Amino acid sequence: MSHPFDQAVALHPLGEHRYGGATSAAYANMVGPFGGVTAAAALQGVLDHPARLGDPVSLTVNFCAALNDGAYELTARPVRTNRSTQHWVLEIVQGGETVLTGTALTAVRRDTWGAQDDPAPRVLSPNALGKPNMAAPVEWVRRYDIRITDGAIPRVWDGAGEHSRTTLWVRDEPPRALDFASLAALCDVFFPRVWLRRATRVPAGTVSMTSYFHVGQAELAAVGEGWLVGRAESSVMRNGYFDQRGQLWSQAGALLATTHQVVYYKE
Amino acid sequence: MSHPFDQAVALHPLGEHRYGGATSAAYANMVGPFGGVTAAAALQGVLDHPARLGDPVSLTVNFCAALNDGAYELTARPVRTNRSTQHWVLEIVQGGETVLTGTALTAVRRDTWGAQDDPAPRVLSPNALGKPNMAAPVEWVRRYDIRITDGAIPRVWDGAGEHSRTTLWVRDEPPRALDFASLAALCDVFFPRVWLRRATRVPAGTVSMTSYFHVGQAELAAVGEGWLVGRAESSVMRNGYFDQRGQLWSQAGALLATTHQVVYYKE
Predict the structure, then answer these.
(1) For chain A, how many structural domains are there in total?
(2) Min Cα separation B104/chain A (Å)
(3) Closest partner residue to B115 among A97, A102, A197, by Cβ?
(4) DSSP SS3 for A5
């Protein structure tokens, strides 16, 4: 039996740069599938492509419309290949309509000088927290073991929110060895910041998400089925949209990804 | 005489979704033009488009190759128009080769609850700082009045850098009323964080940049020719790439844009 995540991002080739995929009931969201898995499937088209050069460095996806349950067609087309970098244009179509656009960069990375200035948050370990503590009003949340250390979804929607920062541990449930596709999905694991900031549950949905990957295949493999610690917060919420920035570290403290999204909210 | 910025982002229609533009010597960078102006020109194609719905909310551009001096062709194609949002796919081609890919989101924004949690940095005013203080090794820097309050380009390249944070005032030089195109360009005004962090001048270039705009046309018009205060820093530099996140506020303290890029560096 393959992992539900592998089933959710599985693609079959339909021709040059074209793949068929399908939404997975295991990752259902309020409307359509969890956006993180859709982003991961788009990246999977790059990862599966026979002409790919290097590992993912950057991924942007725009959610143009909620996906319908069922089949979709993905295009992942390399539009420019340089000596060590390659640029990709992504699109998902359902019933002749564009439901996702995106771009990606892959690159052959070389050893260089380096510095990580943002350390992992110092928080209680996942074992000390004991068990998953994020309410699962939608199916996809059950596909992760999420242990929030601070900034949980409010228990009382009393409009008394004060900040937008959440820190949490997360890994696939059941555990699964980390790869670029699952890391891309994990970048979207933070619930909408407006719920926390406002302590009011308003409709909200990501419209555009960009993730940068700061490690290569070998460093991801070293994480294996281990925990990631993540932190997300927002700078500003105004006139229907807010930003949400996040970071994901390995339990050993390596910053694996930085991610940003702009999210629509109502009222 | 129009402002050099208007000349630099001027487009002429070539057909449906297609525009002609040209690089501007006034905004020349080390190799090719200042990326901020190229991003702005790509957005200008959206702004000029007769089918545009709403104001820019999100813009992602990928620099696939340095532009050559001279003419280019821009495609700005609306691929999905919803009730209040519109998704765009962008491409710049020179000599039959893709040199830029991108996506954008425009939206009709409505009055909602809001909160700005990141205040503008409290720093000396631009008048107190007195005059531009950023070295201008390349032409485009002369098109801005940049007054760095902390985190200047190192005067001595001694490898003794400690952090990557720069705070600065900036406006167009000569002054020009702020609009979405100039704000998109200003998002790229921060010099590569690796120079500061490392106090070593290595080749570096933006490969992908995403900017979110948090205000509408009226709030931009209210800024007029006023100063913006900006801050940028990096989380991690590793194996040839680093992230760079930035924020731009009006002098009155409104957060106008949040921006992120991933930057290539050598050695």
Answers:
(1) 1
(2) 8
(3) A197
(4) helix
